[in-house]
Amino acid sequence: MASTSRTPTRRGRGRGKGRGRGGRGDGSSSLPPPPSTLPLIIEEFFIVVYEDPLVKKALPKKFADYLDGKEPAKVYLRAADCGPRLWTVEVLFDGQGRMYLDKGWENFAIAHGVDFGCFVHFKYEGDDVLTVKVFDGTMCRKYYYSDDDDTDDESDDDVKPCIHPL
């Protein structure tokens, strides 16, 4: 059996693929940048309805921070799977970085069955539009569809619920 001689090597130097800095030999790191240097992108968040479902709802502070400098006076809620209708909801900011869904939220909540214990998922689509999914107290999603034929002269004061599919 032939023996092979091994030449000792020093770790962390040279052009090898060792575990030293970067592992590429060029001094760069293959690790992603730390979270504090990444841009803040908030696209999805949720709230859990613990109090009266019809009063103004606080959105996460991180989302309000994301909108800093471009705080909208209103947002437009679109229920997932409930047609193209946009529900106009006024937004309040309390001066301490908190954002609330206010006037218009009650109509949306009634029409989509938002109740105590519901989990409400929001996805920010840009242009002040949020797509909303409502999950009930059993954590099962509520599905809806709309009857777009009856929306011709409908005002925001008329609350017409989406119809749950049979």
Q: How would you classify the helix and strand content by structural class?
A: mainly beta
What is the H level of CATH, i.e. the homologous superfamily of the domain at 41-147? DNA-binding pseudobarrel domain
CATH architectural grouping of the domain at 41-147? Beta Barrel
Could you estimate the helical fraction of the residues in percent?
Answer: under 10%
What is the 3D form? globular
**Could you give a short account of the major beta sheet?**
7 strands, mixed
Instruction: Calculate the terminal CA-CA distance, rounded to whole Å.
Output: 78 Å
Which regions have little confidence, pLDDT < 50, spanning 5+ residues? 149-157
Percent of sequence in beta strands: 15-25%
- What is the mean pLDDT? 77
What's the CATH first level of the domain at 41-147?
Mainly Beta
Using only C-alpha atoms, the radius of gyration works out to 26 Å
Number of helices: 2
- Secondary-structure element sequence? EEHEEEHEE
Q: Tell me the quaternary state.
A: single chain
Number of strands: 7
